From TrEMBL:
<dbReference type="InterPro" id="IPR004888">
    <property type="entry name" value="Glycoside_hydrolase_63"/>
</dbReference>
<comment type="similarity">
    <text>Belongs to the glycosyl hydrolase 63 family.</text>
</comment>
<protein>
    <recommendedName>
        <fullName>Mannosylglycerate hydrolase MGH1-like glycoside hydrolase domain-containing protein</fullName>
    </recommendedName>
</protein>
<dbReference type="InterPro" id="IPR012341">
    <property type="entry name" value="6hp_glycosidase-like_sf"/>
</dbReference>
<keyword id="KW-0326">Glycosidase</keyword>
<dbReference type="Pfam" id="PF22422">
    <property type="entry name" value="MGH1-like_GH"/>
</dbReference>
<dbReference type="InterPro" id="IPR008928">
    <property type="entry name" value="6-hairpin_glycosidase_sf"/>
</dbReference>
<feature type="domain" description="Mannosylglycerate hydrolase MGH1-like glycoside hydrolase">
    <location>
        <begin position="43"/>
        <end position="431"/>
    </location>
</feature>
<keyword id="KW-0378">Hydrolase</keyword>
<dbReference type="InterPro" id="IPR054491">
    <property type="entry name" value="MGH1-like_GH"/>
</dbReference>
Length: 446
């Protein structure tokens, strides 16, 4: 059993019961009938990878809602297999979120509910992992049988339609698809695109109306985001000839690590539903090998994003470069290198968890979104990676750091990488959900 309390770096006790109650309260407040919203203010719809992380924590307190959240998301899956990064709530006014359904202009799904509107881009495929973890806590073979073919279709879309580089890795066509929206990982690729901020005269940003502008992506970055989304939309969300037709085509190590991890989760799910797990394991191994060959830099000891259009890897040392640690098939030398880098002065495991960007970089920004702050979801994934490769002490240090920062600051969207102060929107769902999972680790993991 877990002890009644732990201690943070100031030797202040962390009240685990209070922390659990706080997290549960956030999730109750953000439930919207058949899905969870990330937050009531900034993110009033259903987000794809948020739904996956949230369902993992929900499984411990409301497993019926955990399954329902995933089912709700996959009801909006496109015929080609893509799972859209946002499913819009028809009860939310268009002016309350931008870019909303009118901007994306996605028609109703063929044969699907007429009220469903979505974006046309995707997010990392964390959903198979979520389904596997929910099933471990609250077994439901019927839900797995419903989800399995849809999860397979999601993987097939990414590995067939998005293999722009031809090496077996999925490419993203927008920084938003990575989930790490304004990471320095994308700077080189985005720098090749014009940043016409006049587009913001036509499209008004909603995020800076409800958040501190200096914590959000810059107007120049946002103008590029809108231009890229509009370009992909105007080409009918088609993925053929991406290198010729689209200005941003990038292989992200975190996105591909999660794609490989999804195959490993699908292998376990396949065994439950009576399918063959072998092909899933083979695909996971193939993705892992391709990542090592294309994205790993032995000199930095990290993985880096690859601009498929130019063939150049980003030099930025970002948290997505640590994320392949989640893969059990990594060679020991590569896993050890990632573990060393994560624990180094560039990142660090405690007393505040791993930041989103190299602390020693000259453009490190402790306040601006993915350019410095700490995010619980990527740290939760890294903790899994440490534990999976036998780094038990590091895994526990990271777990304690996450519990401590949320106990002191609350369930914020992200956190200051030095002080641990909460930043962004408060009462953020995946922070609350993953804290519940961290509290349950002695009972349900590894």
């Amino acid at each position: 059993m877990e002890q009644a309390s732990t201690e943070d770096h100031d030797h202040q006790p962390v009240d685990l019961d209070r922390l659990r109650r706080t997290a549960e309260t956030v999730l109750r407040g953000n439930w919207s009938g058949d899905h969870m919203v990330p937050s009531r203010t900034l993110y009033p719809h259903q987000w794809s990878w948020d739904a996956a992380f949230i369902s993992i924590g929900l499984a411990h307190v409301a497993p019926d809602r955990a399954w329902r959240d995933l089912r709700s998301l996959f009801t909006a899956q496109w015929p080609d297999g893509r799972v859209p990064h946002i499913v819009f709530d028809p009860g939310v006014n268009e002016k309350d979120y931008f870019p909303g359904p009118a901007f994306w202009d996605v028609p109703p799904l063929p044969g699907g509910p007429s009220h469903i509107r979505t974006t046309g881009i995707v997010q990392p495929p964390v959903h198979a992992l979520a389904a596997r973890m929910i099933h471990r806590v609250a077994p439901d073979a019927e839900e797995l049988r419903w989800l399995y073919p849809r999860l397979v279709a999601q993987q097939e879309y990414l590995l067939k339609h998005r293999d722009a580089g031809g090496a077996g890795l999925a490419s993203i066509v927008h920084p938003w698809e990575s989930g790490l929206d304004n990471s320095p990982s994308w700077d080189d690729a985005l720098a090749q695109l014009p940043a016409d901020v006049r587009v913001l005269d036509r499209y008004q940003r909603r995020d800076v109306q409800v958040s501190v502008a200096t914590h959000r992506p810059t107007n120049a970055d946002y103008a590029r985001y809108i231009a890229l989304a509009a370009s992909y939309r105007d080409n009918g969300y088609q993925d053929f000839d991406l290198l010729e037709r689209h200005g941003f085509v990038v292989e992200c190590p975190a996105f591909n690590a999660l794609t490989a991890d999804a195959e490993l989760a699908l292998a376990e799910i396949a065994a439950v539903v009576g399918a063959d797990p072998g092909p899933h394991r083979e695909r996971a191994a193939g993705i892992t090998q391709a990542m090592i060959e294309r994205l790993y830099d032995p000199e930095t000891g990290l993985f880096h994003t690859l601009d498929v259009r130019t063939g150049k890897r980003s030099k930025a040392r970002c948290v997505n470069g640590l994320m392949p640690l989640i893969l059990p098939g990594l060679p020991a030398r590569v896993a050890a290198s990632l573990a060393d880098q994560a624990a180094s002065a560039r990142f660090g495991l405690s007393p505040v968890p791993v930041p989103s960007y190299d602390r020693t970089a000259p453009d490190f920004d402790p306040l601006r979104y993915w350019r410095g702050p700490v995010w619980i979801n990527v740290n939760w994934l890294l903790r899994r990676g440490f534990a999976g490769h036998g780094y038990a002490a590091e895994a526990e240090a990271l777990r304690q750091a996450m519990l401590s920062v949320v106990d002191r600051s609350g369930c914020f969207e992200y956190f200051h990488p030095t002080t641990g102060e909460g930043i962004g929107t408060p009462e953020f769902s995946w922070t609350a959900a993953l804290i519940l999972d961290l509290l349950a680790i002695p009972r349900t993991h590894p």
